[in-house]
Design a protein that fits this description.
Oligomer: heterodimer
Largest interface: A-B, 30 and 36 residues
Organism (chain B): Thermolongibacillus altinsuensis
Distance between the termini of chain A: 104 Å
GO molecular function (chain A): ATP binding; protein serine/threonine kinase activity
Strand order of the largest sheet of chain B: 3-2-1-4-5-6
Strand content of chain A: 15-25%
Order of helices and strands of chain B: EHEHEHHEHEEHH
CATH topology of chain B: Rossmann fold
Shape of chain A: elongated
CATH architecture of the largest domain in chain A: Orthogonal Bundle
Number of strands of chain A: 11
Structural class of chain A: alpha+beta
Radius of gyration of chain B: 19 Å
CATH superfamily of chain B: von Willebrand factor, type A domain
Keywords (chain A): ATP-binding, Kinase, Membrane, Nucleotide-binding, Serine/threonine-protein kinase, Transferase, Transmembrane, Transmembrane helix
Protein name (chain A): Serine/threonine protein kinase
Number of helices of chain A: 9
Radius of gyration of chain A: 28 Å
Number of domains of chain A: 2
Number of helices of chain B: 7
Organism (chain A): Thermolongibacillus altinsuensis
Number of strands of chain B: 6
Distance between the termini of chain B: 29 Å
């Protein structure tokens, strides 16, 4: 069996009807929403409205994600991931094989990075507070999200709210992280193990903030800890959150709540400091203006005097 | 189910073999002995030739494992993904066998309704987390692989990081081929940690021929040697019990 599964699954054209073998529900493909490590996600029209449909020829990966989504629905109160609606098999006519798919709630919104790009950097910390709140609940329920990255965050609703999608990396606490992305993986940066524990996700939260300010990401070179520190210090936005970012990177937070508390504190500090700086700047510029006026006056008088002397000599 | 040990050979190469037995036949031999072979083909910028590609896929197919062709840069992530995927595949094979015994010869994982499959998958994941794993890494050091060795080293560090986060035990061993005298040389004997490789890799020199088939045979031999030693030990156990 080859691993390039998602490539084998050629793209389904709009209008294709996917009909489940077991539950007999039909879904009409509208368009592709994106490609993950374990399959393709489509927007589809179901019996009750628009849904997201993930399809893969790796049936064990599909079932494993379904198990996570099912467990999430048991966590009361909040929606930690998209709501699971259906699981089934379908005979794929283009590759002549039965593939597995699951259907979930379609979360309409924008991905994290393009939202920040449009709305401005001040949203970064706010959205991270929301995310940390969700992570706290997820961790309390015994899970670690694992593959935390901007692509798996969707900002939705008229009041912007960040939502977690793609639970492929979600792992039971204490086990080995199932799926990860290098830039957000503390193992890659030599900052800890790949054991599923809250501090693993919190490292990724810090890296998401860094990614928001360095959209092109970067690779590790040599002294990784110093490299990350330098990246934080050389960016004026990240510098304000240096303390909390460094603590998260070093794995010093055991719980999302602790990090959230520190982040709130820094948001308040930075906004009051910013206010003061603006005031200072204004005072400064006023002073500058007055100095300029004086200089201008002196030059003018001097010029008049020289003109007068010249007239006298003539 | 008794918790056993999964045995894998991870072959890292960049092209076609040109010496000795057919590696695909050797892979089939490995499978018969319950050892899975995974193959990773490493590219530079160049495109791999058709024969090389066919051989890489062929070895994995007949060795019951997983294959993937990648650029050197993506190696770390691929090595761990391939290893994990092959583990799941093997475990699922074992579970499928059990299912057949319970449900009849035609039943398999895919024939179960999704709800039942969920339960089976939980068992497979539980096993994947706790089962013991032995990986023999077989690195091609012929000719053009030379420049890729630092990346290979890093990828192997990364692999041990991923696998050591599991609850089960791991043991790794590294062979390189062609060897100084024989077809393959052992550069690291069974060890739970791969940290030791940093001292091994800089000393490697690259040779001209690529004896992939004989190298796999050598690797199998290493697995068997250890197993026969262990079976000797386990034969001793009842004797000790009796004498006590």
């Amino acid at each position: 069996m080859m691993i390039h599964t998602s490539k084998n699954l050629c793209k389904l054209p709009a209008g294709t009807v996917v009909k489940g073998k077991w539950h007999r529900h039909s879904y009409k493909i509208v368009k592709s929403l994106g490609q993950g490590a374990n399959g393709v996600v489509y927007l589809a029209q179901g019996g009750t409205g628009l849904v997201a449909l993930k399809i893969s020829d790796n049936s064990s990966a599909i079932i494993s994600e379904v198990n996570v989504l099912r467990r999430f629905s048991e966590v009361q109160g909040v929606a930690l991931g998209p709501c699971l609606l259906d699981v089934d098999d379908w005979f794929h006519p283009y590759i002549n094989r039965t593939v597995s798919f699951y259907v979930m709630e379609y979360i309409k919104g924008e991905d994290f990075l393009s939202f920040i790009h449009k709305k401005g950097k001040e949203w970064i910390a706010i959205l991270m507070l929301q995310l940390l709140g969700d992570l706290e609940k997820l961790h309390a329920a015994g899970w670690v999200f694992g593959d935390l990255k901007p692509e798996n965050l969707i900002v939705s609703g008229s009041v912007p709210r960040v939502r977690l999608v793609d639970v492929g990396g979600t792992t039971l606490r204490g086990r080995a992280i199932k799926e990860f992305t290098e830039f957000f993986d503390r193992g890659y940066w030599g900052m800890g193990s790949r054991k599923a524990e809250p501090s693993y996700d919190l490292f990724a939260v810090a890296m998401i903030m860094i990614n928001a300010c360095y959209p092109n990401r970067f690779e590790k070179k040599g002294n990784e800890k110093e490299q990350l520190r330098a990246a934080i210090l050389s960016n004026s936005y990240l510098k304000k959150y240096e303390k909390v970012l460094l603590r998260a990177i070093e794995g010093q937070y055991d719980a999302a709540d602790e990090m959230k508390k520190d982040l709130i504190q820094l948001i308040h500090q930075s906004s009051s400091r910013q206010g003061k700086r603006v005031e200072n700047k204004q005072k400064h510029s006023r002073k500058k203006k007055r100095l300029l006026e004086t200089a201008f006056l002196v030059i003018f008088v001097l010029f008049a005097y020289i003109l007068y002397l010249y007239a006298q000599i003539l | 189910m008794r918790k056993g040990t999964l045995r894998q050979i991870l072959l890292i190469t960049d092209g076609c073999s040109n010496h000795g037995e057919d590696p695909i036949a050797m892979a089939a031999l490995a499978k018969e002995q319950g050892i899975t072979i995974n193959v990773i083909g490493v590219l530079d910028q160049d495109i791999i030739d058709e024969n090389g590609l066919r051989e890489i896929e062929g070895i994995a197919l007949s060795g019951g494992g997983v294959s993937q062709v990648v650029y050197a840069k993506q190696l770390s992530q691929t090595v761990q993904m391939v290893t994990r995927k092959a583990m799941t595949q093997t475990l699922q094979g074992v579970v499928n066998q059990e299912l057949k015994q319970i449900l009849g010869s035609h039943a398999s994982f895919e024939d179960l309704p999704p709800e039942k499959r969920s339960e089976v998958m939980e068992v497979v994941e539980e096993l994947g987390e706790t089962v013991n794993l032995e990986v023999l890494i077989l690195v091609d050091t012929s000719g053009s692989m030379k420049t890729k060795l630092p990346t290979v080293k890093e990828a192997l560090f990364d692999l041990s990081l991923s696998l050591n986060a599991r609850l089960g035990n791991n043991r790794f061993s590294i062979f390189v081929f062609p060897g100084k005298r024989g077809d393959a040389d052992k550069v690291l004997d069974w060890t739970p940690k791969l940290e030791a490789i940093s001292t091994v890799f800089p000393k490697l020199t690259s040779g001209g021929i690529t004896p992939t088939g004989p190298a796999i045979r050598e690797a199998l031999h290493h697995f068997n040697k250890k197993r026969s030693l262990r079976s000797l030990l386990s034969d001793d156990d009842p004797y000790i019990e009796e004498s006590m």
